[in-house]
Write a structure and sequence with these properties.
Number of helices: 15
Oligomer: single chain
CATH superfamily of the largest domain: Aldehyde ferredoxin oxidoreductase, N-terminal domain
Strand content: 15-25%
Radius of gyration: 24 Å
Helix content: 25-40%
Largest sheet: 6 strands, mixed
Shape: globular
CATH architecture of the largest domain: 4-Layer Sandwich
Distance between the termini: 68 Å
Number of strands: 20
Bound molecules: iron/sulfur cluster
């Protein structure tokens, strides 16, 4: 058996209700190294072409890394791999915590989930033994309730539970898989895949530890890491969590703000990692054997609603999406949004970005509900530097509702009326002022991380030549922009 592994993977056929153990040779592990390698190998082998991501043909692989379970900082990771309901391509998402180390100790290197159960079930694995159990009583329950119920009915408080929340059950395409109620396999909709299979949870308990080649060297390496951590470059991440980078992002103009209409948020100081450490932080949490302790545990209330320590605390990404991306500088509000996502199994990045996009559409009158009054003036909303697109003869191209108007418009009217904000980062140039333009894919509606400075206004935006040309559309759009110093600065708005 190769060092670091159990040499076995568990195949779970939910349609047939069968469990099978496959034993693997060392050559396989050396070819498909790590949790991501294992997950990708099985996804490519088992998912048929054209499989519906939310259908029984899709295969969900939860796989563990070679060092998972060893006493080294930062190694307790699991990867969830399947065909993504968001992109239609292979998606994978990783998370840490204690579930990965416990799952390795339970005797398997990967859990391969196929088919679809007739009724909701959960998988229970303990020291090499596995069984499917009824989960009807867990269906629709939030993550904290599910974890507590499983631990109670199996009578072991140390069981680790990986689960899809109600969002996954309902097929929300950015639903995540979550363990410990706060460690999320966030990206690419893996929770929706899990929910589509009627698999509510995978509960694990294990006492095996992987064999390593040189235990003494590993122990001394781990000790060296612990001793030298305070002098390392990532010490700040331990003190203030991943939110430690938020202030730097803001300084460099890379903090997503108001649906990426800016990279600078005037209220950033209220949502930094330091602000959290000095206010609502209850304690620092960690993953198996990790000395960094970057995980946040917060306790507060927002508008009379409790924010519980069980659901952790916001990471940088959550602070950026529910905070600056939405123009929110209320830390308790962001912590509450984080809790709701962790309770229901929603990816905080996609969820926050979706809310920001909806806010932007709403404010720009492109998705205004019928019968509602029009947008109030910028000054009435307290946004002194917010400016409205003055020639939005077509709706914003990222708004699906506007696609017909967009397609029938002429190139000269195809503005990309992304909101613009006067820069605090760049100088003015005569009567022109620098604005930051953010782009979103016209086809899929998702925002491109690419943004650029332009003088006064953006140029026209071409229609993508095919239905999936996200990157092509973004690239060509960006290349047509006038940038500061460019001789092609548009002179009329
Ligand atoms: S505590 Fe932070 S640094 Fe350590 S393994 Fe967990 S996520 Fe990684």
């Amino acid at each position: 058996m190769p060092y670091g592994y159990n040499g076995k993977v568990l195949h779970v056929d939910l349609t047939a209700g069968k469990l099978e153990v496959e034993e693997l040779e060392e050559a396989f592990y050396r070819t498909y190294l790590g949790g991501s390698g294992l997950g990708m190998a099985y996804a490519l082998k088992l998912i048929p072409p054209g499989a519906d991501p939310l259908g029984p043909d899709n295969v969900l692989v939860i796989s563990l890394g070679v060092t998972t379970g060893a006493p080294i900082s930062g190694q307790s990771r699991a990867t969830a791999t399947a065909k993504s309901p968001l992109s239609g391509a292979i998606g994978d998402a990783q998370a840490g915590g204690f579930w990965p180390a416990e799952a390795k100790g339970a005797g398997f290197d990967a859990y391969i989930i196929k088919g679809k159960a007739k009724e909701p079930v959960y998988l229970w694995v303990q020291d090499g033994e596995a069984e499917l159990r009824d989960a009807a009583h867990l269906w629709g329950k939030v993550t904290g309730e599910v974890q507590a119920t499983i631990r109670e009915e199996l009578d072991d408080a140390k069981i680790e539970v990986l689960q899809c929340g109600p969002a996954g059950e309902m097929g929300v395409r950015f639903a995540c898989i979550i363990s410990m109620c706060n460690r999320a396999h966030g990206r690419s909709g893996m929770g929706a895949v899990m929910g589509s299979k009627n698999l509510k949870a995978i509960a694990v308990r294990g006492h095996q530890r992987p064999e390593v080649a040189d235990g003494k060297a590993l122990t001394s390496l781990a000790r060296w890491g612990a001793q030298n951590f305070p002098e390392s470059d990532i010490y700040g991440m331990g003190v203030d969590g991943t939110a430690d980078v938020l202030a730097y992002q803001n300084e460099s103009g890379g903090l997503p703000t108001r649906n990426w209409s800016s990279g600078v948020f005037e209220g950033y100081e209220a949502i930094t990692g330091a602000a959290m450490s000095n206010s609502i932080l209850k304690e620092r949490d960690t993953c198996y054997a990790c000395v960094v302790r970057c995980k946040r545990v917060v306790e507060t209330e927002w508008q009379g609603k409790e924010v519980l320590p069980q659901y952790g605390g916001p990471e940088y990404e959550t602070l950026a999406t529910f905070g600056s991306y939405c123009g929110v500088d209320d830390l308790a509000a962001v912590a509450y949004a984080n809790q709701v996502c962790n309770m229901y199994g929603l990816d905080t990045i996609s969820c926050g970005a979706t809310v920001a996009f909806a806010m932007d559409c709403f404010e720009q009158w492109t998705c205004w509900p019928k019968g509602r009054p029009g947008p109030v003036s910028a000054s009435a909303r307290g946004r002194k530097t917010w400016s409205w697109p003055s020639r939005a003869t077509t709706c914003r191209p990222t708004c699906r509702k506007s696609s017909a108007a967009w397609a029938s418009s002429t190139p000269s009217t195809r503005l990309a009326p992304t909101t613009s904000r006067q820069s605090t980062m760049a100088p003015t140039k005569g009567t022109l002022r620098p604005i930051r333009i953010a782009w979103a894919c016209w086809t899929c509606g998702r925002h491109s991380p690419r943004a650029a400075w332009a003088w006064k206004r953006s140029a026209t935006r071409p229609i993508p030549s095919n239905g999936t040309a996200c990157s092509t559309a973004s690239t060509s759009a960006n290349s047509s922009m006038a940038r500061p110093g460019s001789s092609t600065i548009p002179t009329s708005w």
